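Many introductory courses stop at the sequence. We go one step further.
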Amino acid sequence: MNQVMTRPPAADLARLSVAIVFIALSGPLIVATAAAPLAIAFWRCFIAGGVTGVFVLVRERAAVTSLNRREIRLTVIAGVFLGLHFAAWIPSLTLTSIASSTAFVATQPIWAAVIARALGIRVPRTVWMGIVVAFAGILLLGGIDFSIEPRALIGDALALVSAVLAAAYVTVAERVRQTVPTATMTSMLYFASAITIIPIALIAGQPFVGFSAQAWLMILAITVGAQLLGHTLMNKVLATTPATVVSLAILLEMPGATIIAAIFLGQIPPLAVYPAMALIFAGLVIVIRSSSPRSVTESSPI
C-alpha cells in the first residue's frame, strides 16, 4: 500500500545529503582506482568487516556469543549474496558506463518485490505497474548501450545480475536484523562477503595486492565513504525518518553518480540514455512508494 510521506527532520536531511554524496561517489571512485575490480570488491568488504568487527568486540561481544545456528547461517548466506553482488557490480563498471551500471543496479527494489512474491507475499498491483515502467527503461537502455558498444551489454547484464543479488541479500539480511544487532550482523556478513569473493578472483586471475599507494588510498576512500559512512548515516536516519523516504533518496545516486562521472571522468552519456534512465527512475519511485516499509529498507548496498 502507499506509504505516508512526512518531511524528515532537518538533521536527517543533512545526514541523507552527506550519505547520498558518498554513495554516489562509489562508482566513479571505483573506475578511477588502478586496481583489479575483484580486489576492490574484496578489500572494501574485508576492511569494513574489520572496522565493524572491532566495534562489535568492544560494544556487542555478548550479542556475538548469543547467536544461534539459524542466525549465523542466515548471516553467512546474506554475506555470500552481498559478496556476489559486489563481484558482479564492480566489474560491470569497467565494461559499461557508470550511468548505465548505476541505473541497472538501482533496480534492486524491483527484484525484491519479485522475490517477495515468490515467497508468497502479496505484492500490490501498483508495484507491478512500476515494474513494467522500469523494465521498459531497462530494455531501452540496454538497446542503446548495445548500439553504441556491444561489449557494454555484458556490463549491463552484470549490473542487472548484481541488482538481483542485492535484492536477495536485503531479503535475507532483513530476517537477520529482526533478532541480531546491525553492527554484529554487518561485521559477520562483510567477512563472509570477502571470503566469497576470494575464489572468484583467483579463478579470474585477478591479484589482491601489488597496487600503487594511490590505489590503496582510493580503496580506503571507497570503503570508508560508501561502505561505512554512507550506509551508517542511512541506518541512523532510518530511526527517525520513514524507510520509504530513505529509499527514494537513495535513488538520487543514479543522477548523482552520472553527474560526478561526467565532470571528473568525462563520461557524458548520449542524449538517448536520459529517457531510458527517466523511465527506470519513475518505475522505481512507483515500486518504492507502493511497497511496505520493510521491503524498501536498506534498498542499496552499493
